[in-house]
Amino acid sequence: MDLREGTGFTDDFRRQLELLMQLRRDVRRFKRDAIDEAAFMRCLDLIQLAPSVGLSEPWRVIRVKSDSARAAALKNFEAANADALAGYSGDKSETYASLKLSGMRDAPEQIAIYCDDGTEQGSGLGAATMPEMRRYSVVAAIMLFWLGLRAEGLGLGWVSILDPAQMNRDLDVPPQWKLIGYFCVGYPERYSDTPELQQVGWEDRRGTVPVETR
Amino acid sequence: MDLREGTGFTDDFRRQLELLMQLRRDVRRFKRDAIDEAAFMRCLDLIQLAPSVGLSEPWRVIRVKSDSARAAALKNFEAANADALAGYSGDKSETYASLKLSGMRDAPEQIAIYCDDGTEQGSGLGAATMPEMRRYSVVAAIMLFWLGLRAEGLGLGWVSILDPAQMNRDLDVPPQWKLIGYFCVGYPERYSDTPELQQVGWEDRRGTVPVETR
After folding, report:
1. Interface predicted TM-score (ipTM) of this complex, two decimals
2. Taking the complete model, does pTM exceed 0.90, yes or no?
3. Which residues span the domain enclosing B150?
4. Quick one: which of A169, A214, A185, A149 has its CA closest to A63?
5. What CATH number should be reported for the domain holding residue A40?
6. A interface mutation test: which of B113, B143, B208 has the most A CBs within 10 A?
7. Of the candidates B124, B23, B67, which has an alpha carbon nearest to the alpha carbon of residue A3?
8. pLDDT tens digits, B61-78
């Protein structure tokens, strides 16, 4: 490919890329099989290719491996999920109770991803009026990781039903680190082009992108 | 491809995907040529394939087309950029002053992307303890849009050096909308695999992903 031209991507590649995006799911049902460590590390390395505000690279990854750290994370999720359930009533409460919202009991790899809000890398460029840009940079990195995993046949599940302050204590992270998410990784029980929340009738997709003009 | 197997992506596709991520840049130098509307809309449509917390799809797009709206956005950036420059001293101040941090004078397409923090879609699932998940969903969508643009030979520049409150007034958006970013889109003056901030010596990339284990 000629970098100066930028035209080296083909229609076939663009179709495959769109298909990859269509097949990227938030996975909550994992096989317990160990995953290929080399493939996992290749995907983690994609994080470095993400955009970051001022080149601050504020992403920080914690591999959660010990039984005690995993048990604390699971307890955290279960408490937050019970609280969330208590906030629904009627049909919505029944549906919520039936949902499987994390694969933490089965996923062979689990990581917490943080943003270092206190990093001096990048000297604050681009983050003066919108300091949340550092966190957005970490989300950008997570998307590259996620697409890379799916291209390897691996699934990722993003768990946000958590008390972040409790997780920070359990994982003993520096005070300026902000939790972006807790992630389960492994081979999915099955692949699909339809989000599980849509399959079970929790919510439908809109089908269009809302665009206005000024 | 057999969706049940999920193994349909080839080594060649994974190499092209990594190359796409390597060549995705934050672009500030655009040709003024109009871009292909169909390609632009195909990329905007990729937003629908993004993950969103609880299937809330909180992304809202405003195409900034009028001279008055563009002039207001440019004025906003220039004021915020002058304020930011005043925060640096010495060599860093000199380097900052020499940076080109937005392509707003040239980019043929410009959009503001918002998060509707007040949306009822998704019924709040996954966002009780971490309401910022809605904003992260919008960032996830922006990444799919960005990769899609680059695969079409188009560049995107993310402008965050802005007063969000002023932009909300200028674009007259609902009060519960949160600005995620202002984006320039067009054909880049040139393609590169190296971030411009690295090329000009503002900051270097670390070269590894910081990973700890618990």
Report:
1. 0.96
2. yes
3. 34-119+127-180
4. A185
5. 3.40.109.10
6. B143
7. B23
8. 999 999 999 999 999 999
